[in-house]
Amino acid sequence: MPVVHSIQHLRALAALGVVAAHLEIYLQRLGQAVPWPHFLSYGVDLFFVISGFIMWVTTAGKPVTPRAFLVKRLARIAPLYWAVTAFALLVLLTNRSLMPAGALDWGHVLASFLFLPAIHPVSGELQPLVTAGWTLNFEMFFYVLFALALFLPERLRLGTVLAMLTLTVALGAFKPAATSPLAFFSDNIILEFGLGMLVGAGFVGGKRLPASLGLAAIAVGLAGWMIGSEFFGRIEPRVLLVGIPAALIVLGAVILEQNGRAPQSRLLHLFGDASYSIYLTHGIVLSAFTRFWTKLVPPGLATSVAAFSMAGFLIASLAGLIVYALFEKPVGRLLSSRKPEIAPKPQRVALAIRVP
C-alpha cells in the first residue's frame, strides 16, 4: 500500500518535538532555567490523533477479526516497549546509585509490562517504569475498545467507539481516586483517538477537499496548538485546547496529500519510520547523555544551553534511528510475516497508510 508521506512527516515532527521539549528537563538538572517552547511536548496529542486516523482507515472495508487486530497491534507496540523497559530495569538493578530507596516495586514493574497504570514508587504518580510509556497505556486501551467494535457491522463501529470513549471520560465525573486506573483512563485526552477516527472516516470513500482548505486547517491548527498548549494546566479540557488543533493539522496534511501538494522529504520520512523508537528511547538516552556531559565536557562548554541542546537533540535522534534499524524494523518484519486473519474484499479507501 502506498505511504501517505504527510502522516510520516507529522510523526517525525511530533517525535522530534517531544525530544526538543524534554531537553528542558535536563537543562534544569544542569542548573539552566531558560524559557522553553512548551507546545513541543504536546506531540503526543498529534500521535493520538494519527493513531485514531490510521486505525480507522486501515480497517475500513476489511472484515478484520478482533483477535487479528489485537495481535497485530500488540506485535507492533509491545516488543520495543518491553525491550526498553527490560533495559531500564536492568540498569536500575545493576546501578544501585541510580535507584533511590524503595524505588523498585515488582508489582509496578509487572503492571508496566502489561500496559496497566500503576503508582510509580518514586514519583507517586500513575507512570510506568519507562515514563514515556504512559501514552502506550492509553494506546492499548483504545485498541481494546476498537477491537470490541470490530464485532459489529462497519456502519456501527465509529459511533460505538466514540460512545465508549465518551462514556469513559464521563465516568471521571464521579471523581475516582487520583491514583486509580479509572482516573487515568477517564482523562479527556483519549477523545483525541476519536478525533482521528472522524478525520479518517471523512476520507473513506474518496471525497477530495480543496488544497486551500488543507492549508487553512494546518494554519489554524498550528496557531491553536501553540496557544492552547500555553494555557493547558490553567484551562481545561486538553482535548479542546490541544486535541482539536492537532486534528486540524492532521486533516490539513492529508488534504494536501490527496491533492498532491504535500512536500516529500526522505529525511523526515526516515524519522517518521523511527518515531516510535525515538520517542521511547529519548528519555534514557538524554539521561545518560547528561551524566556524561557533566563529566567529559569542559566547564565553560558544559553550561552552554545551545551546545547541550544541539548535542543532546542530535544524539537522542540518532540513537532512536539506530534502535529502529537494529531492533524495531527487523523484529517488525519478522512478526508481520505471519498472515493476518483478513478475508480479501473489494474496498474503496481514499488513503492507504503504512501502519506506524
N-to-C terminal Cα separation, in Å? 13 Å
Structural shape? globular
The overall average pLDDT, rounded, is 88
| Strand segment tally | 0
Roughly how much helix do the residues carry, as a percent range? 55-70%
Give the domain tally. Answer: 1
Give the SSE string. HHHHHHHHHHHHHH
Query: Low-confidence runs (pLDDT<50, min 5 residues)?
Result: 340-356
Radius of gyration equals 20 Å
SS strand fraction: under 5%
Structure report:
The chain is mainly alpha-helical and 356 residues long. The protein has one domain. Helices cover 67% and strands 0% of the residues. The protein is built from 14 helices and no strands. Helix 3 runs antiparallel to helix 5 and helix 5 packs across helix 6. The longest helix has 32 residues. The two termini are 13 Å apart. The C terminus is likely disordered.
In brief:
The chain has helices at residues 5-29, 43-59, 66-94, 106-113, 134-149, 154-171, 181-185, 191-201, 211-231, 238-258, 266-273, 275-296, 299-302, 305-336. By secondary structure, it is an all-alpha fold. The chain has one domain (5-336).
Keywords, separated by commas or semicolons:
356 residues, 0% strand
List the helices and strands and how they pair.
Blueprint: H1 5-29, H2 43-59, H3 66-94, H4 106-113, H5 134-149, H6 154-171, H7 181-185, H8 191-201, H9 211-231, H10 238-258, H11 266-273, H12 275-296, H13 299-302, H14 305-336
